[in-house]
Amino acid sequence: MKKTTVGIIGCGVAGMTAAIYLKRAGISCLLIEGQVPGGQIIDNDDIENYPGFSKISGSDLALAILKQLKELEVEILYDQVKEIKNGKTKQILCQKEIIEADKIIIATGRHPRKLEVKGEEQLRRKGISYCAICDGSLYKEKQILVVGGGNSALEAALYLSRLAKKVILLHRRENYRAESFLVERLKEKNNVICQTGEVEEFKGKDHLESVILKDKTVLSCDAAFIYIGQLPTTDIFQNLPILGSDGYIKVDSHFQTKEKGIYAIGDCIKKESYQIVIAMGEAATCALSIVRGEQNE
Ligand SMILES: Cc1cc2nc3c(=O)[nH]c(=O)nc-3n(C[C@H](O)[C@H](O)[C@H](O)COP(=O)(O)OP(=O)(O)OC[C@H]3O[C@@H](n4cnc5c(N)ncnc54)[C@H](O)[C@@H]3O)c2cc1C
Question: Domain range spanning residue 288?
Answer without folding.
Answer: 2-111+231-296
